[in-house]
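Intended use. Records like the one below are meant for learning the mapping from a protein sequence to its folded structure. Do not use them to infer anything beyond what is encoded.
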Amino acid sequence: MARASRGGTVSLYNQIVRYGLAPAMDLIRGTRTMRHLRELEESQWWPAERIEELQSRRLQALVKHAYVHVPYYRQIMQRAGLTPDDIRTSGDLSILPVLTRQAIRSAGDSLIADNVPRSALRPTSTSGSTGEPLHFYSTVEDQFSRGLARSFRALEWAGVNIGDRHATVSRPRHYARRREQLLNDASQRVRRSVAINYGSLSDESLSAVVAQLSRGRFTSLGGSPPLLALVADYARIHSASMPPVRAIVCGGEQLFPHERRLLRATWGPEPHSKYSSYEIYDIAAECDAHEGVHVQAEDVIVEITGERGLPVPAGQTGSLCLTNLHNYAMPFIRYAIGDIGSADPEPCRCGRSLPRLKDMIGRTTELIVTPSGRRIFAADIDLEAFSALGIRQFQILQEDIGSVTAFIVWHDDVDPTARVDQERELSHTLSRSMGSEISVTVRAVPWIMPTPAGKHMVVVSKIAPRHLDTIIEDENGADTAPRSIGTGGLDGQIQ
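Structure written out for the chain above:
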């Protein structure tokens, strides 16, 4: 019998949803989400060797399918003198080239499997957080049966059960097909999951978000870390009462220590971080141990790679290459997503054998590069200094190799006569973090706009990172700088 994995109090309604309404939604939608969730709840407690065996079987089946039915993979494997039998485990993947966004765009229809009916293809695109969305195809099985099951398990790790009153501060998701939109809306209502539209993030829209959270009787809360931090900060400034919740789940962007502290002080529990993408769906999530994120390794392979796409030693930081084991329509094998992190080889205190990632640093465009080639990640910068000085928003932008500009937005209650000295203090603090090679300018602005996807990047660099640019397509030409620095509102879609 599988060990229990769900946290928190399980109500009668939770049981009705899990054993009645959710399976009924599967029947209506033609999916197997709840079946796969049960499988994941059991397999998370397997020994590592058994999980690796399952992963290898699924990888072998995917590679064979890609060789036979996907012209792109057949061509690159034949060119390298490879057959599907040459790739048996995740350790063999390094003999294949990395799949970059540019390669996906160039490959076109040659990446689409010839045995998947066009009617079964689900057109999808990324949020475009780096300036240009990536368009690709998935399937109902990959997205709803597998991906949604992983999402439910990740929520369970945070103590959120299906049927809990869960609020996500985001924009409501819209589907191109009316039937799917109706089914999604029905599923949300059944699960009592609510998307609270954050609007333009003006004071008026933040006030509306705070009001909804105050009266909604939600037991759990989700959203991107900077967005939730803005809401928490607004509630603090205006002395708005925020009812405690049982769980906080953050995704879409890196969760920094100062954000953890603010969210914990506002709503109570320690936040859980979740790593996902439009291309792969749920990839990894934090358990109660809060020591990195567990990879959902039954369905996803995560490689930490260095130069020429080769694996790096355990614990060393590198670029993430992802393999989705269930997208048979348009396989993503060794997909260079543009994120950076490292693996933690130590066992987790929670007892799960799923591998863990730590130091999830962010995108390759979210690091400062010095003239000598040193890389400075957001985690290496004293970000606590920003919140300590009463700064509402901030972003560090590098446009040339020897300097950075720190854009900041002051809280209204910070004495204007003290701001010049505080900006000078902040400049000295950042200079200590970055060293003498980088000159720092602090510039106060009324507002900082996010990317078109609604993301607010802490660090944005337009300088190609040395070493990493050998394996990741250089996206620094994309529009990742502040979209606008002025008095306008924020707009976009949180991933």
